[in-house]
Amino acid sequence: MTNPVFNNSPVFGDPRGKGRGGPATTQAPAWGTATTDAATLEQMYDAPTATTRETGRLTYDDVIVKTGGLLALLVVVGAATWVVAPQLWIVGMLVGLVLGLVNAFKKNPSPVLITLYAAAEGVFLGGISAIYETMWNGIVPQAVLATLSVFAVSLFLFRSGKVRVTPKFRRTLLIAIAGYALYSLVNLGLMLFGVGGGDFGPLRSGPLGIAVGLIAVGLAAMSLIMDFDSIKRGVEAGVPAKFAWAAAFGLIVTLVWLYLEFLRLLAILRGD
């Protein structure tokens, strides 16, 4: 797993084993047990089949509704920040970073904290998008369209089975993201010490910056597929419905990353 939201969750974990060489499991965790007599069992057998919603289990509809609501909040707050106070983007970035870390490592999802995270990201994205739009007219609609397109294609590839999340897929993505994170830290360090040039640092400018940007977009798309797989396993395992908040939060984190990568990539393409 690469998304810390799903990676640190006990309900979205890979049932085939944790880590290389770990013991594999083939049975989903039991989220509730009960002792019944023969008469009760007969009544249960004759009763209509209960849906996952009636049993309080996670459903895809729950995830869709929560994700849609958080995205709507993010967009509304982002639009307001863009118009009123785009300079607050750094505040939103710092608050979003703290809330993101808190939510990622919580055992049980907090709807309040997750909602506050979406609002903070709205402030951050609204402000930073206004800055990009001032420098490169029309870049924000392009980045939004590109983000939605990659999301749709990733979902299609996952649902169609054309891309399968295997242990090799996970290991490859984990190594690639770790390498990208290290590369970004080196680039940031060079920027802070005034080494090289470019708006995004010496390692994220020009043809090299375009290549790295395309790689980053690919990694974010692969992370989306990993997120879809985690949600699928959570639904199939019958985890409690409250974890729809965690699933929605995980998707928002990846979508924010993807959008920012598109902003940077398009800016480089249009003139660093």
Automatic annotation (TrEMBL):
Keywords: Membrane, Transmembrane, Transmembrane helix. The keyword Transmembrane applies. Signal peptide: none annotated. This is Integral membrane protein. It comes from the Bacteria. Residues 1-31 are annotated as: Disordered. It holds the Pfam family BaxI_1. The keyword Transmembrane helix applies.
